[in-house]
Amino acid sequence: MPEGYVELDLEGMTCAACATRIESSLNKLEGVDASVNLATDRATVRFAPQSITVDKLIAAVRDTGYDAHVAKEGELRDHSGAHRAAFREFLVAAIFTAPFVLEMTAMAAGGHGLLPGWLQWLLATPVQFWSGWRFYSGAWKSLAGGGANMDVLVALGTSAAYFLSVTVLLFGLPGHLYFEASAAVITLVLLGKFLEARAKARTAQALESLVRLQPKTAWVEKDGRLVEVGIGSLNPGDAFVVRPGDAIALDGRIVEGDSSVDEAMLTGESMPVEKHAGSKVFAGTINGMRLLRCVATGVGRDTLLSGIIRLVAAAQGSKPPVQRLVDQVSAVFVPVVVVISVITFAAWWFVGGTFEGALVPAVAVLVIACPCALGLATPAALMVGVGRAAREGILIRNAEALEGAEKLDVLVLDKTGTLTRGEPAVTDVVPAGDASEEELLRVALALEMHSEHPLARAIVKRAAGIATPAMTGFEAHGGRGVSAQVDGQGARLGSPEFLSGSGVSFDAAVLDRLRGEGKTVVGVVHATRLLGWIALADELRETTPAAVRRLLAMGIELVVVSGDNPATVKAIADRLGIRSWKAGVLPEGKAAEIDALHALNRKVGMAGDGVNDAPALAKADVSFALAGGTGVAIETADITLMKNDLAGVADAIALSRATLAKIRQNLFFAFVYNVLGIPLAAFGLLNPVIAGAAMALSSVSVVSNALLLNRWRPR
After folding, report:
1. Domain assignment present for 259
2. pLDDT range class, residue 1, cuts 50, 70, 90
């Protein structure tokens, strides 16, 4: 059954209660799975298109008192208009509230009020009903939709202070005027909203930087000259040209030219990558100093960069399990605060006997409560963390993967392509008797130069620059070795067992030493004379030992599971200081190893290449794929590393720990703020103005704390 997917830009949300209300309304529809992100003002919705339409989804949002429209793919929401409006509202409020600040300063110094009552009313009214109109509008929409949000609290609290003051002034009643409290609270909350909007915009910078990397035009050759065209006019298979220093417009394959390409935006690797005819290139990367002629292999949404942007956006909009408690609290937060305010009012009136004395703490309770901080605590940190990871070439599929990576205590490692380079290389050339290294390599080159076997390619690469002798009568011997006539005499290359069958004798000590190091050994015979041995191994990446030490220092147990022979796997594990390893394990067997660890109640991660390790990757709690720029791994793994380096796994786990730490800090601050602030206000220990300032700064502090993740750097 096909699944529909849409992202909706939401209008009118002001706090976590709004997001919870919209999400609940959407999820009540049959076949709908929706997630609302307060930090991005966006809903991610999966639905059954045969029973639900996008129009019904939008109608469900509107029924809650908010508005929605379909977000355009690849385009980020422009918050500049709302940002400017928030600044205007704050500026007007600040101008009219400034005289009240002088008034309060004078009274605090022991002086008398400077402003007559009618002037206070004149100053407070535009603040209450022009700058503060957003709170009345938001409260009405929320209540009309059957819910209550932060706007309800602000509107109730400031209106009570304002209209009490109007009544005292109009009827000449004894009592204090609270125009300064209502105006100051609105001004401070608007300041908080303005600062919050600026901070929220910064959390989206990582995704914005990725979107800006997408080129809009490409160069093609027409009638012998270069013409610039929009990338939308090109299709897979079309030819395009990349000039020196230009961004590559599409995913493609080089057909002519040699250059170096800066792929830092994909992999986080600062060193340019050499490219030649046949090499792959990717949209958004930067060409070096030579012209490249390419053919397109991916355009539009099918480029690797577009896939990364979609993945990052989806991850930033997802919710980790830790958010569930916040959603439950947000759903009842505002009604509970209103009840506490009513109880506070009644208790103070009963104890103190005056309406005015009861109103001040009740208003302070309404103003101090801040569901915004709760709503922003998780998504703000998640957005910054996922975006920071993307800039380092670490692609996190969703919030569950991020949270899961923090809990891992054991990591299963594939050997080939994960710990090692994934291709064999010659490590030792050991001549026998009076033979020279050049003679040994010369005959080996003649026997292997036409083979496509990985071992043969490694030998040919090592023998580069040596003149190739004449070779005839080539014959392969069923995976044991090859034979031919070299310079008119018989020659053989193969395993020691293959050579011994031809009557050649040799010293087993050399073989035992090389094989004991986990290397594959082949020998070369020419005219019944042993020329020597060539040892090959899939060598460790230069960064693997340091990455392994770092993972072990992080308290993560490492287990190597490989299909290779025991001697090779043991040699690799011993060299890296890894105690647990298993050899000769097929892909299905790797999945069984994951199950065995799960049976021991371990939190298991798996790092592999995303192809032959697919069964094990699927079984792991969190899977890491060393992608090397492949789209397949992005679609299968929980966390994809855009460069083939095990250090990226350590970086991903470290960043997940840092991000979850920020989320917990934010939730702690948000909960403690309300747990302490509301009782203080209820007991009359907080002036409404101070309560308003604290409320305004609470959400700003949460987002600012999340932004500190931008300082994180890989080790």
Report:
1. yes
2. very low
> What is the domain range of residue 265?
215-301
When pLDDT is averaged across residues 67-84 and rounded to a whole number, the result is: 71
**Is residue 120 within 8 Å of 199, Cβ to Cβ?**
no
- Res. 17: pLDDT tops 90: no
Q: What is the pLDDT of residue 184?
A: 83
Report helix, strand or coil for 112: coil
Cα distances (Å, whole numbers) of residue 237 to 250, 295, 299:
11, 6, 10
One domain, residues 43 and 10: yes
Q: In terms of domains, do 336 and 190 share one?
A: yes
Tell me which residue of 21, 24, 677, 689 sits closest to 373, measured CA to CA.
677
414 is annotated as an active-site residue: yes
Burial class (CB in 10 A: 0-12, 13-18, 19+), 696: buried
622-631 average pLDDT score: 70
Specify the amino acid at residue 39: A
Q: Based on the domain organization, do 194 and 332 belong to the same domain?
A: yes
Catalytic entry in 262, 414, 613, 638 = 414
Considering the domain boundaries, does residue 141 fall inside one?
A: yes
Q: What is the pLDDT of residues 258-269, one digit of tens each?
A: 999 988 777 666
Residue 388 lies in a domain: no
Domain count, the chain: 5
Give the CA count within 13 Å in the CB-facing half-sphere of 570: 7
Please check whether residue 60 lies inside any domain of the structure: yes
Query: Higher-confidence residue: 162 or 398?
Result: 162
What is the C-alpha to C-alpha distance for residues 521 and 494, in angstroms, rounded to an integer?
8
In terms of DSSP bridges, do strands 286-287 and 259-262 run parallel, antiparallel, or are they unpaired? antiparallel
Q: Which two tokens stand for residue 495?
A: 């395993």
- CA of 378: how far to CAs of 322, 374, 407, in Å? 8, 8, 17
At residue 656 the predicted structure's pLDDT band, cuts being 50, 70 and 90, is very high
Residue-wise pLDDT tens digits, 555-613: 999 999 987 778 778 888 998 999 999 987 877 788 889 999 999 999 999 998 655 67
How crowded is residue 705: how many other Cβ atoms within 10 Å of its Cβ? 19
C-alpha 479, offset from chain centre: 45
Identify whether residues 237 and 361 lie together within a single domain: no
- Considering the domain architecture, whether residues 358 and 316 belong to the same structural domain is answered as yes
Do both 330 and 188 map to the same domain?
A: yes
